[in-house]
Specification:
The protein is mainly β. It has one domain. 5% of the residues lie in helices and 55% in strands. The protein is built from 1 helix and 17 strands.
């Protein structure tokens, strides 16, 4: 299911815009590096970093995916207040050679979202809700923030703005499953398991004792983010052979 209303062959970009809670949310590590995989085969890399400033926090995410049918690069920067409230977002991406740019900022009780993609531009005003997160495809930093908000708000009152077409806002439903096991850099680690449902699509989130993101099974078929050095036991999904599989999901932005 494409999040954007602009069509590019076998490309896609999902973005979720929102507001962080008034109270500071607890985070795990301030940075992380991940492998992007499809059906167990590496197809790219992703990383995030949070930096404290006098005004609050700066957040940066970088993603690069290169595979048959999909050449995808993402650079996202956020400015957060000391209370982790989103103050400004700028996102630049290329999907199969086509540029996508998003700028979002609060405007009174709304979000003002400007999207430019496939030669088209749109400006949308969307309602602001506390306890929400900005999320782009393959963005581990945004998923880390979602985990922090889940702890802060007891997995309730979470929202996501999806910039498909003119943009829409959807609740985020979180379900908690039994803990699992894994290793991080060769050492055993307890793994928490959550499933986030947004607009009917599920993302399995696996986190460590410090609430750090370890792995995410993404809504796009067969795609996952895996923190470097982490191994989930047993795997979330069986590894499938590459032959005969589609290289990427259907059309999107």
């Amino acid at each position: 299911m494409p999040w954007f209303g602009f069509s590019t062959n076998a490309g896609f970009l999902a973005l979720i815009l929102a507001v962080l809670p008034a109270a500071p949310a607890q985070r795990g590590p301030e940075s992380g590096s991940f492998q992007v995989a499809q059906h167990g085969h590496a197809v790219g890399t992703a990383s995030f970093q949070f930096t404290a400033t006098k005004e609050g926090f700066d957040s940066t995410s970088l993603v690069k995916v290169t595979m048959e049918g999909l050449d995808y690069a993402l650079s996202k920067t956020e400015r957060l207040s000391p209370a982790n409230q989103l103050e400004h977002v700028q996102l630049s991406a290329t999907v199969n050679g086509e540029a996508v740019n998003v700028v979002a900022a609060p405007d009174a009780a709304q979000w003002l979202v400007n999207i430019s993609a496939s030669g088209k531009s749109s400006t949308t005003r969307l309602a602001r809700h506390p306890g929400a997160v900005f999320l782009a495809d393959f963005d581990p930093g945004a998923l880390e923030t979602l985990l922090a908000l889940a702890v802060e708000r007891n997995s309730r009152g979470l929202w996501a703005i999806l910039p498909k077409d003119a943009g829409s806002i959807e609740p985020v439903q979180l379900a908690t499953y039994a803990d699992q096991e894994g290793t991080l850099d060769g050492k055993p680690i307890v793994v928490h398991h959550l499933v986030a449902t947004i607009a009917g699509a599920n993302t399995d989130l696996f986190s460590g004792p410090e609430n750090q993101l370890l792995q995410a099974e993404l809504p796009q078929e067969g795609f996952a983010l895996v923190r470097k050095g982490f191994v989930l036991k047993p795997p979330a999904k069986p590894i499938m052979p590459a032959g005969g599989l589609d290289a990427a999901p259907g059309p999107g932005a």
